[in-house]
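PT: before anyone asks, these are the final sequences, not the draft ones from last week. 676 residues across everything. Please model them as a single complex and drop the result in this thread when it's through.
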Amino acid sequence: MITLDNITKTYNKGTVLAVKDISFEVKPGELFGLIGPDGAGKTTLFRILTTLLLADKGRAMVNGFDVVKDYTKIRNSVGYMPGRFSLYQDLTIEENLHFFATVFGTTIKENYALIKDIYQQIEPFKDRRAGKLSGGMKQKLALCCALIHKPAVLFLDEPTTGVDVVSRKEFWEMLARLKAEGITILVSTPYMDEAKLCDRIALIQKGTILSVDNPADIVQSFPGDLYAVQAANTHLLLREARAYEGTETCFAFGDALHVTFRSGVADGLLAHLKTRGLDDATMEKITPGIEDCFIHLLKN
Amino acid sequence: MKTLGFLLEKEFRQLLRNRQLLRTLLLAPLIQLIILPLAADYTVKNIGIAVADNDHSTTSLRLIEKIVSSGYFKLQGYTASYHDALGMVEADKADLALQIPAHFESDLVREDKKQVYVAINAIEGTKANLGGAYLNSIISDFNENVRAQWQVGSASTGSPEEAPQVSVASSNWYNIFLNYHLYMVPAILVTLVTAMVAMQSAFNIVQEKESGTIEQINVTPIKKHIFIIGKMVPFMVLGIVLFTMGLLVGWIGYGIVPLGSLWVLYVSLIVYLFSMLGLGLLIATYSGTQQQAMSLSFFFINIFNMMSGVFTAVDSMPAWAQAIVTTFPPSHFIKIMRAVVLKGSGFSDILPWLGALAVIGIVLNGWAVLNYRKTS
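LR: through. Structure below.
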């Protein structure tokens, strides 16, 4: 449904590399996640795929159309929700929705079934101007506007950035329902915990793809065992754990350290820590998360 | 075409919703149109004059009386010495010092000529210029009168050497009384329409860039030229409304009724708005923020106002400046306005200017569209 073939894009006359030789494929009906930190090149990819930006090199197809040659056909068949709220703030909810329906040559009524679940939540405020809405409501309106012409592919650029935890959860539930309608969705997010909600993910960093797979397989591919180490004095703990000769990687995750060892399995770290005055140190084996895999891939 | 309808519906909805802006756009120019022509009046009155009369004769008194009764001058001081009169100019109590030398009358009778001396404060150029010219013409008029009287008095002696003088009689066509309002109101109306249309259309488009809505529009099937027309039409309408209100103010406030046909005026207006909207669009393609658009359009508007012949005649500018001015849409439209309003010109008379406007409009719009494609 979406194919990228060696896409490269630079800014400022080639001095700033945004994305380099990106290739991956999104299958029809898939919920595909583009996971990476800020500045990784996610938005650049979105802008290339939505025909807003021309790549320097490479080819990309969306819904069977070339992003350069058939851009008008793509514009008719995709929905795009940019990272920044980009609807008319001085028009009301209903006027915005009506406007975007009409420019796509359709009506709210015609595709109401698709947006019903989402629109019903903001319908009580339909006469309120978009600029006066809360963050969560703006996001729902933007999704409605991106969906109103029943697109085959939906592009969501960081839809949950700056949205509270409950709304984020709700939003992903909405995406699951849209996927059930058969819409192919490409979504980007800097939140690793959202990655496991996707069918497949691409981990992206500094303009290159680190890995493309389903979340379970990415976690599976994590080599060796991962341990969570905790102690009251986290500062001393981090220093000692990193200094320990058997440690391969050691990163702070909240109030715990995630540690891997050169030998692959836990060895005498705990005993070592006790000799350094960290008597309360505990260690347990844990299942790696996407973020652990991401950091692991970054190191290689 | 249907899409254009939806775009226009959206544009007008937004425009009408922004009441504060709409009020400013329509009322502020009208207030300016009422105030500016009253202030921008070239007629110089109340020129202060200090006279040092060293003669104290009937002739010198008659000269002074003639100067004061002209209506342009106000006698601020009648001093004993030229030094005192100049002192009044220095103290800013008078604009002119006139010295009538001793034996003015007797020398004039005996030698048939006598000089008077005039010192003018030239800090205010226009006032000095016109004041000096007025005074000059009054004195030469006085001179002729005096001589004519003497000649009548001494007709028998007659002076054969007195050559017949060439006198120039001028009459002001199209504006008999040199009424400055008649001349200024149409031009000021042009500057107001110019500022509103060029700046606002630029700001409006840049605002869509700033708020990111143009991205959202760009991923819809809306064609670029439809989007641009959708932006132009509302400001074209606004410009026509403003122009109409301005004509009404000119009629009610200054009694100015265009001699030519309104049809000619409005067709020219539409061509003019087309070219100015092209400029607005061009500014918008070169600006990323409203602040940038503001400074760019301010640059153009200022130059247009000073160089397009509103206040100073383009014909008296240096050749290079005149060449530049021909590329300014307002200079052509001001000429059209004055010709149609004051002279009653028809299409055939204004065709060169109208053609220039159309060409400038096509160039500006074409440039803007090309640049718009390139940047997005």
